[in-house]
Amino acid sequence: MARSVEPLAVGKVIGDVIDMFVPTVDVSVSYVSKQVANGCELKPSGTAERPRFQLSARSLDDNLYTLVMTDPDAPSPSEPTMREWLHWIVVDIPGGSDAMRGREIVSYMGPKPPTGIHRYVFSLFKQQGPLGSVARAPEARNNFSTRAFAARLGLGLPVAAVYFNAQKEPASRKR
Fold first, then answer.
1. pLDDT tens string 37-84
2. What 3-state class would DSSP assign to 7?
3. pTM beyond 0.90, yes or no
4. In angstroms, rounded to a whole number, what is the distance separating the alpha carbons of residues 73 and 85?
5. Phi (first) and psi of residue 93, to 5 degrees
6. Which H or E element spans position 57?
7. What is the DSSP string of 108-165?
8. Looking at residues 87-113, what average pLDDT do you find?
9. What 3-state class would DSSP assign to 79?
10. Local structure of residue 18 (DSSP, 8 states)
């Protein structure tokens, strides 16, 4: 992931989901063979399975991280009354490793945009220490707030973020 926040600002991820921040960690997000780049378009059918979320390998990174994935455009970009829809939370991810080495507190839910083009945002936060039982799943996936979640856990601003777009796929016509 490039260290520029410009694509996040242009795509209104900064503002709708997170506040302005300075990226300090490189991440790589991929679905099977598709690499996620800011603003790229992926098909929901290609994102049904949990992605590989890799933090950059740094020789002395003994920090822990929290990953949050949300859709700020639910149920539609023109009327996001369920903003943000929560898709995934993983905490206690060791630095320089894959998200699956962390503790999943909200299981992955693949994108299923009902109408319009939706943004799917991965926000990564550096933890002050292990979160243990402090981090627990919210009551519902709708009307989640990445900012409020980060504030409640004392995570501060993100250290990395990346997003992709997806829209409903046309139904296959069988004759």
1. 999 999 999 999 999 999 986 655 789 999 999 999 999 999 999 999
2. helix
3. yes
4. 8
5. -85, 120
6. none
7. ------SSSEEEEEEEEEE-SS--GGG----S-STT--HHHHHHHTT--S-SEEEEEE
8. 95
9. strand
10. B
